[in-house]
Each structure stands twice: as structure tokens, then as C-alpha cells.
Amino acid sequence: xxxxxxxxxxxxxxIGAQKAGTTSLFxxxxxxxxxxxxxxxxxxxxxxxxxxxxxxEAFLAQTFAGADPGLRWGPASPQYMAGA
Length: 84
Fold this sequence. Notes:
Blueprint: E1 14-15, H1 22-31, E2 35-36, H2 49-54, H3 56-63, E3 72-73, E4 76-77
Parallel strand pairs: 1-4, 2-3
């Protein structure tokens, strides 16, 4: 079982269209000393029924494992812009 996450919410969420610069923005944000981004882009909790089934705490524990709770946490994904 995953360790409980250090935070219970995200500080921000980057939503953008595909081919609109979300990868560049993700990389720039990763370099900021006060921000923690997941190791990889596109961890769309809200668009993935499997992640939702495992729960919010499991998502945070997996996606932000070892992240400093004093930093701002947030993922980036263009998948929220895709049609259902």
C-alpha cells in the first residue's frame, strides 16, 4: 500500500490543447525552485477512470511520491481538452 501523501490537494493544474505548448510549459515549471511537477507529463486523474477508482490519495501518493509539501504541486495534461 502507498504511503499517505504529504498534501491532500493540488496547488494548480495545467490544462491545454495538444500541440499548444503544454510540454514546454511543463518543462519550464519543472525548473522552478518552488514548484514540483510529476516526473512525466500527462497524469490526468480526472480523465482516467482507473485512477479515479483507486482514489485521490492513491493518485497523490503515486504521482507526487517524495515531493516536498512546502512546494507548489501540479500536473500538466492536454487530455482534459479532448472530447469524450
